Amino acid sequence: MGHDEQFSIEVRFGRAIRKRRNELGLSQEELADLAGLHRTYIGDVERGKRNVSLVNIDKLAKTLGISIWTLFRDYGIEESSEKTP
């Protein structure tokens, strides 16, 4: 994974979803079932391989019991790739 890919919004979002999912003790399959999404989709999201729609961001945040704003603010999504040379 190149430097730019490592800090892409997709990767940062996926890490945030994984972190929150783990805090709640949910498996990818459980999260997928609760959110009405496919397990492989959740895996792709967590690996930064999906450009997630606003509808699915909303589904995931609600399922994870967190607001979209809090997810972005408190889980490192807003971190800029420019912080690290």
Primary descriptors:
disordered C terminus; 85 residues; 61% helix; single chain
What would you note in describing this structure?
The chain has 85 residues and is mainly α. It has one domain (3-77): 434 Repressor (Amino-terminal Domain), CATH 1.10.260.40. Helices cover 61% and strands 0% of the residues. It contains six helices and no strands. Helix 3 (28-35) crosses helix 4. The radius of gyration is 12 Å and the shape is globular. Residues 81-85 have low confidence and may be disordered.
Topology:
Elements: H1 3-6, H2 9-23, H3 28-35, H4 39-46, H5 54-63, H6 68-74
CATH topology: 434 Repressor (Amino-terminal Domain)
Bulk shape: globular
Beta-sheet strand percentage? under 5%
- How many angstroms does the end-to-end distance come to? 15 Å
Rounded mean pLDDT is: 90
Enumerate the spans where pLDDT stays under 50 for 5 or more consecutive residues.
Answer: 81-85
Radius of gyration: 12 Å
Counting DSSP E segments of at least 2 residues, the number of strands comes to: 0
Oligomer: single chain
How many domain units?
Answer: 1
> How many helices does DSSP assign?
6
Instruction: Give the CATH level 1 class.
Output: Mainly Alpha
Structural class based on helices, strands and sheet pairing? mainly alpha
Fraction of residues in helix: 55-70%
Main beta-sheet annotation: none
CATH-level-2 architecture: Orthogonal Bundle
Order of H and E elements = HHHHHH
CATH homologous superfamily assignment: lambda repressor-like DNA-binding domains
